[in-house]
Amino acid sequence: MKLLAIDCAANLCAACVYDAAAGKELGRSVFDLGKGHAEHLMAVIDEAWK
Fold first, then answer.
1. How many angstroms separate the CA atoms of 47 and 14, rounded?
2. What gap in Å lies between CA 47 and CA 3, rounded to an integer?
3. Which of 11, 15, 19, 34 could form a Cys-Cys staple with 48, CB 3.0–4.6 A?
4. Where are the domains of the chain?
C-alpha cells in the first residue's frame, strides 16, 4: 500500500509518498510558504511523486 501524507497546518506545506509494503519513503516535497497553501498544494504533491 502506498500512502500520501500531507501537512499544511503551519508555515510549511509538505507531502510525502510512503510505500508501506517496502517500508520506505518514495518521495517528499517541503516548501516554506507562509500563506497560500491551497494555491500550491497540488504542485507540492506532484513534486513528491517524482
1. 10
2. 15
3. 15
4. 2-49
